């Protein structure tokens, strides 16, 4: 039989049509317009997995209200370091999005971003004391200088009437608020970015195409085997550089790539569900993102929040997410994903991490066993007047938390993002979840600095970085005047005033 395999060559292959690939593709084309890029996505649309609004556990992550980024140490202190890093990263994203709008590469920013207060809310003396310390640790930094703190019940009623209605007024409560917070629909943003990418010379976007294997050749280039799921047509792609940003699907592909840097990595899948409000009168009463404290042993993606969002042009109100367990690595994945990912080099770290995270396992089992009534009771901690008939279950996305080797502990479960890059810089893989999409620009700048080391140093690339991201190479938290200027400019361009 004749070989009917379709063959193609390009400078860059991006696997997965989510926010990460979209960001990397656009940045690379700005830096080097003549680059040829092929993008492969197994579904029929961009941003249909982790980047989609219904699947994304947190929109506009900027560490303004997410308490899991500022845990209290055993000595009672609270470090702002991680929150500052995430807030810095989000400012980079805003600058890049503003650049894309100014250059008319994406339009109508109001379709994907809008201003909304970010609020942290707690009750009980111990939690109130924690929030006060967190406020003091953060507000001293320019990035968080606009944060306000209150324990005044009547003031909190103005901030979040739905949350305070029906609550006992003698209860010890506290909240912080950042009025410059935003809601970001990463599904809309990603599809806008890919729409522009697909029109650029040298860029080809392939849907219904699943990457089945990849192998590095003797000349350090990569051969990638792909199947068109719609026609069963076989394809082979040859490229100098591969980026795998396939969400939960990245780990199996990292294993197939068989690079030394990828040894020992495993994944722990966590599924999720939302409670979605169906009562327009209730939805209209809430206009903020209110985050609380996570339960002991719960993953960061399960930090409870009552969240006002714009999805498909309509205001929505969500609560959750409620966690669960599935052996799938993707929402549209296979139940065999987890078993197939277990290999000789990662079985020990996975077993050790599992043993050390028994509280997490117990938490997930408890979550799976919850009845609809149990979920409404959890909601009532944040919306005391919640009624069963006003809320329905909506399936959220699938996350794969990173498990990796650890010299001291043997195996460790991570809740952030992990970038694995081959020593020769020809392959980069993104694993993990939170804070994810909000810090996409920062993460992709890291990928570029690792994989295009010589080009990054050139005056041409440095100038283009600064054109796209005016604060490039500077820490905004150390430069209050620049921070104020950047925030003012991006707010104007993105129509956030």
UniProtKB/TrEMBL annotation:
EC numbers, comma separated: 1.1.5.4
Catalytic activity: (S)-malate + a quinone = a quinol + oxaloacetate
Pathway the protein takes part in: Carbohydrate metabolism; tricarboxylic acid cycle; oxaloacetate from (S)-malate (quinone route): step 1/1
Superkingdom, natural source: Bacteria
Keywords carried by this UniProt record: FAD, Flavoprotein, Oxidoreductase, Tricarboxylic acid cycle
GO terms for biological process, alphabetical: tricarboxylic acid cycle
Broadest EC class assigned to this enzyme: oxidoreductase
Keyword Oxidoreductase found: yes
Cofactors named for this entry: FAD
GO MF entry, a single one: L-malate dehydrogenase (quinone) activity
Record family assignment: Belongs to the MQO family.
HAMAP family cross-referenced by the UniProt entry: MQO
Name the record gives this protein: Probable malate:quinone oxidoreductase
Organism in which the protein naturally occurs: Flavobacterium faecale
Taxonomic path: Bacteria, Pseudomonadati, Bacteroidota, Flavobacteriia, Flavobacteriales
């Amino acid at each position: 039989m004749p070989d009917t395999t379709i063959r193609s060559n390009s400078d860059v292959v991006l696997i997965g049509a989510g926010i990460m690939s979209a960001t990397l593709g656009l940045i690379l084309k700005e830096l080097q317009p003549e680059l040829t890029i092929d993008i492969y996505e197994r579904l029929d649309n961009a941003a249909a997995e982790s980047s989609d609004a219904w699947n994304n556990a947190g929109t506009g992550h900027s560490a303004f209200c997410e308490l899991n980024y500022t845990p209290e140490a055993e000595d009672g202190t609270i470090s702002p370091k991680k929150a500052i890093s995430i807030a810095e990263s989000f400012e980079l994203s805003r600058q890049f999005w503003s650049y894309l709008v100014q250059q008319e590469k994406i339009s109508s920013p109001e379709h994907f971003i809008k201003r909304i207060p970010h609020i942290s809310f707690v009750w009980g003396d111990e939690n109130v004391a924690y929030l006060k310390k967190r406020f003091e640790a953060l507000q001293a930094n320019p990035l968080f200088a606009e944060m306000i703190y209150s324990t005044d019940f009547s003031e909190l009623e103005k901030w979040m009437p739905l949350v305070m209605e029906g609550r006992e007024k003698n209860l010890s409560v506290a909240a912080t608020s950042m009025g410059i917070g935003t809601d970001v629909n990463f599904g809309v943003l990603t599809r806008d970015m890919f729409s522009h990418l697909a029109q650029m010379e040298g860029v080809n976007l392939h849907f219904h195409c699943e990457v089945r294997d990849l192998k590095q050749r003797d000349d350090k280039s990569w051969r990638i085997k792909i199947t068109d799921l719609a026609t069963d047509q076989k394809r082979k792609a040859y490229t100098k550089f591969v980026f795998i940003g396939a969400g939960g699907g990245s780990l199996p592909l990292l294993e197939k790539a068989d690079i030394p840097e990828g040894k020992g990595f495993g994944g722990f899948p966590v599924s999720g569900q939302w409670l979605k409000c169906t009562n327009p009168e209730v939805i209209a009463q809430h206009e903020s993102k209110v985050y609380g404290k996570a339960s002991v042993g719960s993953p960061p993606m399960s930090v409870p929040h009552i969240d006002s969002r714009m999805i498909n042009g309509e205001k929505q109100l969500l609560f959750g997410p409620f966690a669960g367990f599935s052996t799938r690595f993707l929402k549209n994945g296979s139940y065999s994903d987890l078993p197939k990912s277990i290999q000789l080099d990662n079985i020990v770290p996975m077993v050790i991490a599992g043993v050390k995270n028994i509280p997490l396992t117990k938490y997930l089992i408890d979550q799976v066993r919850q009845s609809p009534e149990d979920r409404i009771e959890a909601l009532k901690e944040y919306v005391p007047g919640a009624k069963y008939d006003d809320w329905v279950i909506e399936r959220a996305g699938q996350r794969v938390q990173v498990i990796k080797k650890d010299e001291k502990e043997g195996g460790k479960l991570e809740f952030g993002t992990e970038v694995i890059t081959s020593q020769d810089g020809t392959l980069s893989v993104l694993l993990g979840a939170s804070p994810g999409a909000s810090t996409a620009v920062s993460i992709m700048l890291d990928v570029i600095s690792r994989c295009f080391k010589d080009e990054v140093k050139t005056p041409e690339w440095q100038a283009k970085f600064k054109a796209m991201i005016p604060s490039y190479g500077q820490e905004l938290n150390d430069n209050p005047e620049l921070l104020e200027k950047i925030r003012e400019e991006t707010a104007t361009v993105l129509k956030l005033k």
